[in-house]
Amino acid sequence: MSWRRLGLVYASSGTLPWARSHAALPTPIHLDGDIFRFFFSSRDADKKSHVGWVDVEVCDTPRVLDAALAPVLAPGADGAFDDSGVGIGSVVVTDEGVSIYYMGWNLGIRSPWRNSIGLARSSSSGGAFARYSPGPILDRSPEDPYTLSYPCVLQFGLGDWRMWYGSNVAPAVGNADMQHVIKQARSVDGIRWVRDGKTVIGFADETEYALARPSVVKIGDNLLMCFACRGASYRIGAAISRDTGLNWERCDAEMGLGVSEHGWDSEMTCYPALFWHKSRLWLAHNGNGYGATGFGLAVWEGSISD
């Protein structure tokens, strides 16, 4: 059993001012039937990231049905935590509306960037998104002293929200490589988060130095996570938890996704998003250039046991 690639689904045409390049971090929500809206991040001419969407018919031969002409979320005002770009991490749909959890960043001097986690909300998937606040909902702290990255948020029940996110465990100064792992936070309302700073997914070996963009789904009583893992280049790794997220076991060989022999994802696979549709497990992901070549889909072949 393995992932069956369905090919490239969408790439930026380069004609829109907010989307000159990239369709990174595909993040689906179900609209109706086989139709999913995939939010993604694109870059303008100044390489600032905006969030837009495309509607896709999810099937064995996926096709794009519609696309946003304007972004639903743009970089923040100068001086805000997200004035240099917004990178989508997770979308949560509740009875109250739609919430986008995202990474916002500032460019730095000694350190090349500073990232924080923000929240924007809308009453519907097609409506305008407004920031919950001018500031982030998760920022540097004693538990995360350096920088944070793309969050994955799930609501398990009333008052039980979980977030998995990336965090540097050492400063990235100058050209130094980052040391970036995955941590966890919990919340009763999806806004105010409690974290202990413990690493929940660490490096598989000495060649890895960055894990980012976790995506978590339920499989029976277990949780499956996919994420981008970086060594010589990016690949998609995986881990499973049998105790509701307290402990994780890496299972890259079984559930991860490497590169293709040729084409749009022949150099790297990164920024995964897991989702269920018609009792089948699907994977949206980026390829070469961190989303410069667009995003594609894969579907899991065979059954998945608990």
SSE map:
Elements: E1 3-10, E2 21-32, E3 35-43, E4 49-57, E5 63-67, E6 86-94, E7 97-107, E8 113-122, E9 130-131, E10 148-157, E11 160-170, E12 179-187, E13 193-201, E14 210-219, E15 222-230, E16 234-241, E17 249-250, H1 252-255, E18 270-277, E19 280-286, H2 288-291, E20 295-300
Would you mind describing this structure in some detail?
- This protein is mainly β and 306 residues long.
- 3% of the residues lie in helices and 54% in strands.
- The protein has two helices and 20 strands.
- The chain has helices at residues 252-255, 288-291; strands at residues 3-10, 21-32, 35-43, 49-57, 63-67, 86-94, 97-107, 113-122, 130-131, 148-157, 160-170, 179-187, 193-201, 210-219, 222-230, 234-241, 249-250, 270-277, 280-286, 295-300.
- The strands form five sheets. Strands 1-20-19-18 form a four-stranded antiparallel β-sheet. It has a four-stranded antiparallel β-sheet with strand order 2-3-4-5. The chain has a four-stranded antiparallel β-sheet with strand order 6-7-8-9, with no helix packed on it.
- The longest helix has 4 residues, at 252-255.
- It starts with a strand and ends in a 6-residue tail after the last strand.
